[in-house]
């Protein structure tokens, strides 16, 4: 979740599917004056054609395109109560996914996991589906607790999301992306609690430490059952430290 800078909304009306599609562009090669033919990356003078090399790299991986898309969609957004670029969170979540053994496709979804909720709603999801495929879009949709604006009441929205995480029909990779997302958010809360104390809670919609502890404890319980392992264990330890710092 993010906050937008002054004068911008988290769900700008103009971030439509066409905008999302425009964000996904291939790198263009500069004119070199040398002739390169076919699919080879070697030009007639023996040099490497940068444009073709970039194109082959992009065919091999969707991660650069997904990162470019995330930067275009979230580039003006900041982490709650900070000047930290929101994309730092998306990169961190994707890193956790890869470190936990997640596939590249799952990491692509991690980079885009907040795009529907914070950057365009259903039209952005349609653009993600068109550009990155059904499975990536399904993970992104599964990690979205609402695509409505204004958002429904916080407590009911979070309770619904916790129920959703218990669904046996979630797409492969969705639990990993969600767990990585919640772990990174929990780490950030603990860090900022140490730095700022209870003033931190004012950044959140409810402004309530008990509400946030209820949510994160519930998340830790769900992930301990649904996706046990190192990340779930770390989330549980991080939530315990959050509770200790909050005195709850």
Secondary structure layout plus pairing:
Elements: H1 17-22, H2 50-60, H3 63-74, H4 87-99, H5 104-111, H6 115-118, H7 122-132, H8 134-142, H9 154-165, H10 174-196, H11 209-226, H12 230-246
Helix pairs in contact: 3-5, 4-5, 4-10, 5-8, 5-10, 7-8, 9-11, 10-11, 10-12, 11-12
Task: Explain what the structure shows.
The structure is a single chain. The protein has 248 residues and is mostly helical. It has a single domain, classed as Orthogonal Bundle (Hypothetical protein af1432). It is 58% helix and 0% strand. It has helices at residues 17-22, 50-60, 63-74, 87-99, 104-111, 115-118, 122-132, 134-142, 154-165, 174-196, 209-226, 230-246. Helix 4 runs antiparallel to helix 5 (104-111) and helix 5 packs across helix 10 (174-196). The radius of gyration is 20 Å and the shape is globular. Mean pLDDT is 81; it is low at 3-48.
List keywords for this structure.
248 residues, mainly alpha, Hypothetical protein af1432, 0% strand, globular, disordered N terminus
Outline:
The chain contains 12 helices and no strands. By secondary structure, it is an all-alpha fold. The protein has one domain (17-26, 48-246): Hypothetical protein af1432.
